[in-house]
Structure prediction request, 221 residues.
Amino acid sequence: MTAKPIPQVPSDGESHYFEDPTVPSDPIVVDVTLPDTAFTMETDTGVFSRGHLDAGTSLLVRSEAPLASHGDLLDLGAGSGAIALAMARRSPEATIWAVDVNSRARELCRRNSERNRLGNIRVVAPDDVPDDVRFTTIWSNPPIRIGKAALHGLLLTWLGRLSDDGTATLVVQKHLGADSLQRWLTSKGHPTERIASKSGFRLLGVAPARLASSNGSGQHD
Prediction:
C-alpha cells in the first residue's frame, strides 16, 4: 500500500495564494500616503504584504496609469485592498470590484473600505463577479508565483473582460519574468507595452484583445 503524500501547509509567505489561510491572524494597521490621497488599512498574516505597502503596489498606485472615472473597475488579486482603495478614492463615481481568492484578504478589504468610508468597493471571490460585467480599467499586482500556466489562464480570463476601450496595468518584477510576460500577452492578442520601470519592477500597459484573437489565437499555453 502506497502512502499518500502529506499536504504541504503554506508558510506565511505563501498562504495568501490559498482560499483559507492556515496561519494565525495577527493584524497590523498601516497608513498609506500618496501624492493625491491617503488612507489607513489593516493588514494581516496570510495576506500579501503584511505591515507595509509592497514596492510593486506602491509603484502602481503612485503612477499615472490610466484610470477610468466611471464604469466598472477591477483590482485583481486585491489582498487587503490598497489598489482598490486608491482606485475608489480617485474614481468615486465608479464601481470598484476587489477580487481575491483568499477569504481573509476579502474580509480585510471589506473592513478597509468601511474604515475609509468608501462605499463604491465591492469585495468578492472570483466566481461572484457577474458574467456580463466588463471593466474599463484593470489594475493588478498579479500572483506571479502561482506558476506560469495558472497565471496565464488567470490573466487571459480577466483581460478578456476588458471593455472595447478599456485598459489594464500590471506591475511585475523584472526578475520574475515581466519582459517575457509582456511578449506573451502581445502574442495572445493583447498589445502590451512597458509604461514605467523602477526598482526592478515593470509597469505593463495592456490593451483589449484584437478582434482577430477570437478565432482561437487567444488560448493560453
